[in-house]
Amino acid sequence: MIVKEAMTADAAWVDAGRTIGEAAQLMLKLDVGCMPVTEGDRLVGLITDRDIACRAVAEGRNPYAERVRAIMSEKVVCCSENQPLEEAVELMEANGIRRLPVLDQNGHIAGLISIDDIARHADYQLTGQLMHFLCMPAEKRPLRRV
Description:
The protein is an alpha/beta fold and 146 residues long. It has a single domain (3-140), classed as CBS-domain.
């Protein structure tokens, strides 16, 4: 199976120039905890509900004055829509992450793949392998290189 067959293709994203408050409202409306961040048609980061809580609220930032780019995670691990699902799982394990933006052949966002998507589409062994790895405390995870 390839990533395209398992990913959430209608995943929403937010522009880096929107306010943190606008991003939070959109995440609430869509019931999501993570959104890719774009500038124009290019992926530039990722914002999570944790970013909003820890980098904005806890630091006393004004969510309606500050922009998403100020708190987003800029280091984004991505995969291609045509990669085998097993490779996406390896990327998630190697980076200790639960979601991957998926890019098309032109480098544009095609969707998002999460552990939920993998659980719905992959075999039990692959799903179990990923869940076991991500549930381990970070300091006990074996070092993996991808």
